[in-house]
Amino acid sequence: MIQLNQRDPRPIYEQVKENFKNLIFQGVIRPDEKMPSVRELAQKLSINPNTIQRAYRELEQEEMIYSIPGKGSFAASVHMIRDNEIRDLMHTFTQTADRLLGIGVSKEELIRKIEGRQI
Amino acid sequence: MIQLNQRDPRPIYEQVKENFKNLIFQGVIRPDEKMPSVRELAQKLSINPNTIQRAYRELEQEEMIYSIPGKGSFAASVHMIRDNEIRDLMHTFTQTADRLLGIGVSKEELIRKIEGRQI
DNA sequence: TAAGTGTACTAATAAGAATAATACAGTTAA
DNA sequence: TTAACTGTATTATTCTTATTAGTACACTTA
After folding, report:
1. Which of A11, A96, B17, B42 could be stapled to B49 by a disulfide with Cβ–Cβ 3.0 to 4.6 Å?
2. What pTM, to 2 d.p., does this model score?
3. Across the interface, do B93 and A96 touch by the CB < 8 Å criterion?
4. pLDDT for A33-53, tens place per residue?
5. Class of domain A12-76
6. Which strand D nucleotides have any atom less than 7 A from protein CB atoms?
Protein backbone atom coordinates (compact mmCIF):
# COMPACT_ATOMS: atom_id res chain seq x y z
CA MET A 1 0.00 0.00 0.00
CA ILE A 2 2.78 2.39 0.94
CA GLN A 3 6.07 2.56 -0.93
CA LEU A 4 9.21 4.07 0.60
CA ASN A 5 12.03 5.13 -1.67
CA GLN A 6 15.48 4.68 -0.21
CA ARG A 7 16.99 7.26 -2.57
CA ASP A 8 14.35 9.87 -1.82
CA PRO A 9 16.12 12.58 0.20
CA ARG A 10 12.92 13.52 2.01
CA PRO A 11 12.30 12.21 5.53
CA ILE A 12 10.28 9.03 5.87
CA TYR A 13 7.30 10.73 7.47
CA GLU A 14 7.06 13.05 4.48
CA GLN A 15 7.01 10.14 2.07
CA VAL A 16 4.33 8.45 4.15
CA LYS A 17 2.27 11.65 4.12
CA GLU A 18 2.50 12.00 0.37
CA ASN A 19 1.61 8.37 -0.19
CA PHE A 20 -1.58 8.72 1.82
CA LYS A 21 -2.51 12.03 0.28
CA ASN A 22 -2.38 10.42 -3.13
CA LEU A 23 -4.34 7.38 -1.99
CA ILE A 24 -7.05 9.59 -0.51
CA PHE A 25 -7.22 11.94 -3.50
CA GLN A 26 -7.37 9.00 -5.88
CA GLY A 27 -10.17 7.47 -3.86
CA VAL A 28 -8.23 4.31 -3.05
CA ILE A 29 -8.90 5.10 0.58
CA ARG A 30 -12.53 6.16 0.83
CA PRO A 31 -13.92 8.80 3.21
CA ASP A 32 -14.21 7.47 6.77
CA GLU A 33 -12.32 4.34 5.82
CA LYS A 34 -9.89 3.14 8.44
CA MET A 35 -6.20 3.69 7.84
CA PRO A 36 -3.61 1.13 8.92
CA SER A 37 -2.77 1.45 12.60
CA VAL A 38 0.51 3.13 13.46
CA ARG A 39 2.03 -0.07 14.80
CA GLU A 40 0.79 -2.29 11.98
CA LEU A 41 2.18 0.02 9.30
CA ALA A 42 5.41 0.61 11.20
CA GLN A 43 6.01 -3.12 11.34
CA LYS A 44 5.29 -3.61 7.66
CA LEU A 45 7.73 -0.85 6.74
CA SER A 46 10.25 -1.87 9.41
CA ILE A 47 10.37 1.58 10.97
CA ASN A 48 9.50 3.13 14.29
CA PRO A 49 5.79 3.62 15.09
CA ASN A 50 6.49 7.20 16.08
CA THR A 51 7.49 8.00 12.54
CA ILE A 52 4.08 6.89 11.30
CA GLN A 53 2.48 8.74 14.14
CA ARG A 54 4.15 11.94 13.06
CA ALA A 55 2.87 11.50 9.52
CA TYR A 56 -0.64 10.89 10.85
CA ARG A 57 -0.46 13.85 13.22
CA GLU A 58 0.46 16.19 10.41
CA LEU A 59 -2.16 14.73 8.08
CA GLU A 60 -4.65 15.37 10.84
CA GLN A 61 -3.46 18.96 11.26
CA GLU A 62 -3.98 19.40 7.53
CA GLU A 63 -7.40 17.85 8.01
CA MET A 64 -6.74 15.07 5.53
CA ILE A 65 -7.59 12.47 8.18
CA TYR A 66 -9.05 12.34 11.67
CA SER A 67 -7.94 10.15 14.56
CA ILE A 68 -9.83 8.72 17.50
CA PRO A 69 -7.72 7.47 20.40
CA GLY A 70 -8.31 3.77 20.93
CA LYS A 71 -10.19 3.35 17.68
CA GLY A 72 -7.96 4.36 14.82
CA SER A 73 -7.33 6.95 12.12
CA PHE A 74 -9.75 7.54 9.28
CA ALA A 75 -9.72 9.38 5.96
CA ALA A 76 -11.60 12.67 5.85
CA SER A 77 -14.23 13.26 3.20
CA VAL A 78 -13.07 14.71 -0.10
CA HIS A 79 -15.55 17.55 0.31
CA MET A 80 -14.03 18.43 3.64
CA ILE A 81 -10.56 18.29 2.12
CA ARG A 82 -11.57 20.51 -0.77
CA ASP A 83 -13.22 23.02 1.56
CA ASN A 84 -10.11 23.18 3.70
CA GLU A 85 -7.91 23.71 0.69
CA ILE A 86 -10.12 26.52 -0.53
CA ARG A 87 -10.14 28.09 2.91
CA ASP A 88 -6.36 28.10 3.09
CA LEU A 89 -5.91 29.41 -0.44
CA MET A 90 -8.48 32.13 0.16
CA HIS A 91 -6.55 33.22 3.19
CA THR A 92 -3.35 33.52 1.18
CA PHE A 93 -5.26 35.27 -1.57
CA THR A 94 -6.76 38.02 0.58
CA GLN A 95 -3.57 38.44 2.55
CA THR A 96 -1.54 38.94 -0.61
CA ALA A 97 -4.16 41.28 -2.00
CA ASP A 98 -4.06 43.36 1.18
CA ARG A 99 -0.30 43.72 1.00
CA LEU A 100 -0.53 44.81 -2.62
CA LEU A 101 -3.28 47.28 -1.84
CA GLY A 102 -1.21 48.52 1.09
CA ILE A 103 1.74 49.53 -1.09
CA GLY A 104 -0.40 51.35 -3.58
CA VAL A 105 -1.64 48.87 -6.17
CA SER A 106 -5.27 49.62 -7.06
CA LYS A 107 -8.22 47.28 -6.74
CA GLU A 108 -8.90 47.77 -10.43
CA GLU A 109 -5.47 46.44 -11.35
CA LEU A 110 -5.96 43.34 -9.22
CA ILE A 111 -9.40 42.75 -10.72
CA ARG A 112 -7.97 43.06 -14.21
CA LYS A 113 -5.39 40.45 -13.29
CA ILE A 114 -8.14 38.06 -12.27
CA GLU A 115 -10.20 38.73 -15.38
CA GLY A 116 -7.19 38.09 -17.56
CA ARG A 117 -6.65 34.57 -16.24
CA GLN A 118 -7.42 31.43 -18.20
CA ILE A 119 -10.36 29.19 -17.22
CA MET B 1 24.36 51.40 13.42
CA ILE B 2 23.62 47.69 13.68
CA GLN B 3 22.36 46.08 16.88
CA LEU B 4 22.70 42.36 17.53
CA ASN B 5 20.51 40.76 20.16
CA GLN B 6 22.14 37.92 22.04
CA ARG B 7 18.78 36.44 23.06
CA ASP B 8 17.36 36.53 19.54
CA PRO B 9 17.18 32.90 18.40
CA ARG B 10 17.64 33.83 14.76
CA PRO B 11 21.07 33.47 13.13
CA ILE B 12 23.32 36.52 13.12
CA TYR B 13 23.15 37.02 9.36
CA GLU B 14 19.34 37.19 9.61
CA GLN B 15 19.53 39.89 12.25
CA VAL B 16 22.01 41.83 10.13
CA LYS B 17 19.70 41.54 7.15
CA GLU B 18 16.70 42.81 9.07
CA ASN B 19 18.68 45.69 10.51
CA PHE B 20 19.69 46.88 7.07
CA LYS B 21 16.25 46.39 5.60
CA ASN B 22 14.84 48.67 8.25
CA LEU B 23 17.58 51.25 7.78
CA ILE B 24 16.98 51.30 4.05
CA PHE B 25 13.20 51.44 4.34
CA GLN B 26 13.42 54.21 6.90
CA GLY B 27 15.73 56.17 4.63
CA VAL B 28 18.59 56.18 7.12
CA ILE B 29 20.66 54.63 4.38
CA ARG B 30 19.88 56.51 1.18
CA PRO B 31 19.72 55.01 -2.31
CA ASP B 32 23.21 54.38 -3.72
CA GLU B 33 24.77 55.20 -0.37
CA LYS B 34 27.70 52.99 0.55
CA MET B 35 27.13 50.33 3.18
CA PRO B 36 29.86 49.45 5.69
CA SER B 37 32.41 47.05 4.22
CA VAL B 38 32.15 43.41 5.25
CA ARG B 39 35.41 43.52 7.18
CA GLU B 40 34.75 46.85 8.85
CA LEU B 41 31.33 45.77 10.10
CA ALA B 42 32.56 42.32 11.10
CA GLN B 43 35.22 43.90 13.25
CA LYS B 44 32.78 46.29 14.90
CA LEU B 45 30.42 43.42 15.73
CA SER B 46 33.26 41.03 16.60
CA ILE B 47 32.10 38.37 14.19
CA ASN B 48 33.44 36.67 11.10
CA PRO B 49 33.43 38.70 7.86
CA ASN B 50 31.80 35.79 6.06
CA THR B 51 28.72 36.20 8.22
CA ILE B 52 28.30 39.77 7.01
CA GLN B 53 29.06 38.63 3.52
CA ARG B 54 26.22 36.15 3.67
CA ALA B 55 23.81 38.84 4.83
CA TYR B 56 24.93 41.09 1.99
CA ARG B 57 24.72 38.30 -0.56
CA GLU B 58 21.11 37.57 0.39
CA LEU B 59 20.20 41.24 0.48
CA GLU B 60 21.61 41.47 -3.02
CA GLN B 61 19.57 38.46 -4.15
CA GLU B 62 16.49 40.20 -2.77
CA GLU B 63 17.62 43.27 -4.67
CA MET B 64 17.75 45.43 -1.58
CA ILE B 65 21.38 46.31 -2.27
CA TYR B 66 23.93 45.88 -5.04
CA SER B 67 27.60 45.05 -4.69
CA ILE B 68 30.59 45.90 -6.85
CA PRO B 69 33.74 43.83 -6.28
CA GLY B 70 36.59 46.03 -5.15
CA LYS B 71 34.33 49.02 -4.55
CA GLY B 72 31.71 48.16 -1.99
CA SER B 73 28.02 47.45 -1.41
CA PHE B 74 25.35 50.07 -1.93
CA ALA B 75 21.69 50.49 -1.09
CA ALA B 76 19.24 50.05 -3.97
CA SER B 77 16.73 52.75 -4.77
CA VAL B 78 13.42 52.64 -2.93
CA HIS B 79 11.61 52.61 -6.25
CA MET B 80 13.52 49.54 -7.31
CA ILE B 81 12.76 47.89 -3.99
CA ARG B 82 9.07 48.69 -4.25
CA ASP B 83 8.91 47.40 -7.82
CA ASN B 84 10.56 44.16 -6.80
CA GLU B 85 8.18 43.72 -3.91
CA ILE B 86 5.18 44.29 -6.15
CA ARG B 87 6.55 41.87 -8.72
CA ASP B 88 6.96 39.13 -6.09
CA LEU B 89 3.56 39.73 -4.53
CA MET B 90 1.89 39.75 -7.94
CA HIS B 91 3.44 36.41 -8.68
CA THR B 92 2.02 34.96 -5.47
CA PHE B 93 -1.30 36.62 -6.21
CA THR B 94 -1.81 35.17 -9.67
CA GLN B 95 -0.46 31.80 -8.63
CA THR B 96 -2.91 31.57 -5.76
CA ALA B 97 -5.73 32.77 -7.98
CA ASP B 98 -4.92 30.10 -10.54
CA ARG B 99 -5.03 27.37 -7.94
CA LEU B 100 -8.38 28.61 -6.68
CA LEU B 101 -9.76 28.82 -10.21
CA GLY B 102 -8.40 25.35 -10.86
CA ILE B 103 -10.43 23.75 -8.07
CA GLY B 104 -13.66 25.39 -9.12
CA VAL B 105 -13.84 28.83 -7.50
CA SER B 106 -15.24 31.36 -9.97
CA LYS B 107 -13.58 34.55 -11.14
CA GLU B 108 -16.60 36.47 -9.92
CA GLU B 109 -16.09 35.24 -6.39
CA LEU B 110 -12.44 36.27 -6.41
CA ILE B 111 -13.34 39.69 -7.79
CA ARG B 112 -15.96 40.15 -5.09
CA LYS B 113 -13.28 39.33 -2.52
CA ILE B 114 -11.07 42.08 -3.91
CA GLU B 115 -13.90 44.60 -4.05
CA GLY B 116 -14.80 43.87 -0.43
CA ARG B 117 -11.37 44.79 0.89
CA GLN B 118 -10.63 47.95 2.82
CA ILE B 119 -8.55 50.75 1.20
C1' DT C 1 52.14 48.89 -4.73
C1' DA C 2 49.73 48.84 -0.51
C1' DA C 3 45.44 48.89 1.59
C1' DG C 4 41.08 48.76 0.79
C1' DT C 5 36.89 46.22 -1.45
C1' DG C 6 33.70 41.90 -2.57
C1' DT C 7 33.80 36.79 -3.42
C1' DA C 8 34.64 31.73 -3.60
C1' DC C 9 35.89 27.50 -1.34
C1' DT C 10 36.52 24.44 2.30
C1' DA C 11 36.40 23.04 7.03
C1' DA C 12 34.61 23.15 11.64
C1' DT C 13 30.97 23.76 14.64
C1' DA C 14 26.45 24.61 16.32
C1' DA C 15 21.61 24.01 15.85
C1' DG C 16 17.70 21.67 14.56
C1' DA C 17 15.22 17.96 12.42
C1' DA C 18 14.20 13.18 12.32
C1' DT C 19 13.83 9.00 14.46
C1' DA C 20 13.72 5.80 18.40
C1' DA C 21 12.52 4.17 23.12
C1' DT C 22 9.26 4.00 26.48
C1' DA C 23 5.17 4.74 29.01
C1' DC C 24 0.34 6.21 29.33
C1' DA C 25 -4.70 6.12 28.28
C1' DG C 26 -8.79 4.91 25.66
C1' DT C 27 -11.55 1.08 22.97
C1' DT C 28 -13.08 -3.41 21.91
C1' DA C 29 -14.18 -8.13 22.22
C1' DA C 30 -13.61 -12.58 24.36
C1' DT D 1 -12.50 -8.21 33.70
C1' DT D 2 -8.72 -8.62 30.90
C1' DA D 3 -5.96 -9.04 26.95
C1' DA D 4 -4.95 -7.11 22.70
C1' DC D 5 -5.71 -3.65 20.09
C1' DT D 6 -5.88 1.65 19.22
C1' DG D 7 -3.77 6.71 19.33
C1' DT D 8 -0.78 9.93 22.10
C1' DA D 9 2.75 12.21 25.01
C1' DT D 10 7.44 12.67 26.64
C1' DT D 11 12.12 12.11 26.53
C1' DA D 12 16.43 10.70 24.53
C1' DT D 13 19.41 9.73 20.76
C1' DT D 14 20.99 10.09 16.24
C1' DC D 15 21.72 12.33 12.09
C1' DT D 16 21.36 15.90 8.83
C1' DT D 17 21.54 20.59 7.87
C1' DA D 18 22.44 25.31 8.78
C1' DT D 19 25.59 28.47 10.48
C1' DT D 20 29.89 30.24 11.24
C1' DA D 21 34.91 30.40 10.71
C1' DG D 22 39.42 30.13 8.17
C1' DT D 23 41.84 31.14 4.18
C1' DA D 24 42.90 32.54 -0.37
C1' DC D 25 41.76 35.01 -4.64
C1' DA D 26 40.58 39.00 -7.63
C1' DC D 27 39.33 43.64 -8.37
C1' DT D 28 39.66 48.95 -7.26
C1' DT D 29 41.64 53.01 -5.71
C1' DA D 30 44.89 56.25 -4.01
Report:
1. B42
2. 0.88
3. yes
4. 999 999 999 999 999 999 999
5. mainly alpha
6. 5-10, 17-23, 26-29
